[in-house]
Amino acid sequence: MNKFLKVLGAAILIAMFILPNITGWSMAEEQSYEEIPSEIVRGKILEIMDVPMDVEQYGSFVKDVQTVVVEITQGDFKGEVLTLDHVLSGNLAYDFYLDEGDLVLLWIETVDGDLVSAYVSEIVRDRYLSYLTIFFVLVLVIVGGMQGVKTVLTLAITGFFILKVLLPTILAGYNPIGITIIVASFIVTISLIITSGLNRKTAAAILGTIGGVVVAGIIALVMSSMTKLTGLSNDEAQMLMYIPQQIEFNFRGLLFAGMIIGAMGAVLDVGMSVASAMDEVRRANPDLSTRRLIHSGFNVGKDIMGTMSNTLILAYTGASMPLLLVFMAYDTPLVRIVNLDLIATEIVRALAGSIGLIFAIPITALAAGFLYRQQRNIRSGRGKRTGA
Questions:
Q1: Cα 37 to Cα 50, 70, 105, 118, distances in angstroms
Q2: Residue 175, Cβ neighbours under 10 Å: how many?
Q3: Which terminus in the chain has less CB density within 10 A, N or C?
Q4: Signed CA dihedral, 221, 223, 228, 234: sign only
């Protein structure tokens, strides 16, 4: 068993480097689809000028204009100071007012190496997000010790697979269903091996998690087909129809991929919790029968099941809260709400993930019971040979 797990772990680590090449992705490659004389650079607001808005210049659709003095702090034009009009439309979803000292992103256009136009495109937020990320990592390491370090490593690997394998491969036109199942299996396996080592507990958690994710995927795929979900219920999916690569996406497949990735974390948590609890029970009572051990795993899973199902459903409800408030404000009938593509998509997403989570419990318990029984049989055989 240990030999099998070591071979499995080695194969997975090798695949981390082989899979990107098979799918046509390389860390050294960056494709450029359109060369345009523009770029985004960083800048700093030096001054907000008190200049009245020229209504005739901008028209009635513009609600306010801030005239700002900004210094470019990055790129070929670093140190150059510009005076720009920051136009505000009155739409709170897109407008942001600037203050002196704000760090911003500037969209600049150049012709023959000369800067011809610029405007403020966004507030710089990545610096503060970096601080939050560093604090998160420090808390993990300080509180969790070596286990925290392993958690950081698994998060990095997860990010690598999603950003550098899953998304580029789908963008290259590969089937999102197949590649998502493969990548999700790799993420689950590597994460559990790093955090818990190569042992039977890890093997049981891997089997239970992958089994639960596959069940969730099957449910999502079947229900997406039966309810005729388009996969185009949000604006981001619709924007994919107009990207410069002109890829004909399988939007139902993309919907399936999102459901798998969304459910994977909760299913992984359940699988590991059940496997870990069963391992502790077996250590406390090595003579416990396989049937009793599996029953203990089921009991632990039942306690986890309710809270984790609530976690999934509450997470998806929270993401849809503004839309639900709009429906309530306009007294939209429930039958109308439930049958909307957007709402039906979220219902399928939440319930498919919860069903996969529930199935992960018996799969993990049965896998752990079988693996530990196999271990007991091996030890019993050695004991008989020694006695002989």
A1: 32, 21, 17, 12
A2: 13
A3: C
A4: negative
Report d(CA 205, CA 211) in Å as an integer. Answer: 10
Residue corresponding to tokens 């009009």: 85
H-type helices in 145-234, by residue range? 146-161, 167-171, 176-196, 200-226
pLDDT above 70 coverage of the chain, percent: 85
For 38-124, which CATH class? mainly beta
Exposure on the CB side of residue 205, measured as CA atoms within 13 A: 33
Q: Count of CB atoms within 10 A of residue 112's CB?
A: 6
The residue extents of the domains of the chain are 2-24+158-387, 38-124
Q: Which two tokens mark 237?
A: 């999916």
Helix (H) or strand (E) holding 358: helix 341-387
Residue 327 burial by Cβ neighbours in a 10 Å radius (0-12, 13-18, 19+) = middle
Span 280-291, pLDDT tens digits: 988 888 878 888
Residue ranges of the alpha helices (H) in 285-320?
290-319
Question: What letter would DSSP give residue 165?
Answer: I
| Terminal-to-terminal C-alpha distance of the chain | 25
Instruction: Return d(Cα 158, Cα 184) in angstroms, integer.
Output: 9
Q: From CA 96, how far away is CA 54, in angstroms rounded?
A: 19
**Do 267 and 360 contact (CB within 8 A), yes or no?**
yes
What's this model's pTM, rounded to 2 decimal places?
A: 0.72
By CB atoms closer than 10 A (0-12, 13-18, 19+), residue 188 is buried
b/e 190-221 (16+ beta carbons within 10 angstroms → b):
bbbbbebebbbbbbbbbbbbbbbbbbbbebbb
Whole-number Å distance between alpha carbons of 267 and 208 = 8
Helix, strand or coil for residue 215? Answer: helix
